[in-house]
């Protein structure tokens, strides 16, 4: 596979993706109760995620998690991709967390 810099090392890993429109997509066993992972990518850095969830943040209520399942994100909509510490993520009380939603990235 050729594509985005460093993505090779994240294939079959548990990751978090921040999109240009401010969405936080995670593939995490803590959320999915299974091993969700980055399944692959292409030369345009389009990525395929398995067992993915979107985390929706709010200042009024805890983090909501929307099940996405198998999900493709276009490379031109990706702002950040990073490996997720599954143990640390599992220890978070997401229902208790509050936060402002991310604003869109302006290029």
Automatic annotation (TrEMBL):
It is found in: Nucleus. One of its GO terms (cellular component) is precatalytic spliceosome. Signal peptide: none annotated. Its main location: nucleus. One of its GO terms (biological process) is mRNA splicing, via spliceosome. The keyword Nucleus applies. Residues 2-87 form the Sm domain. Plays role in pre-mRNA splicing as component of the U4/U6-U5 tri-snRNP complex that is involved in spliceosome assembly, and as component of the precatalytic spliceosome (spliceosome B complex). The heptameric LSM2-8 complex binds specifically to the 3'-terminal U-tract of U6 snRNA. PANTHER family: LSM1, U6 SNRNA-ASSOCIATED SM-LIKE PROTEIN LSM8. LSm subunits form a heteromer with a doughnut shape. This is U6 snRNA-associated Sm-like protein LSm8. The gene is LSM8.
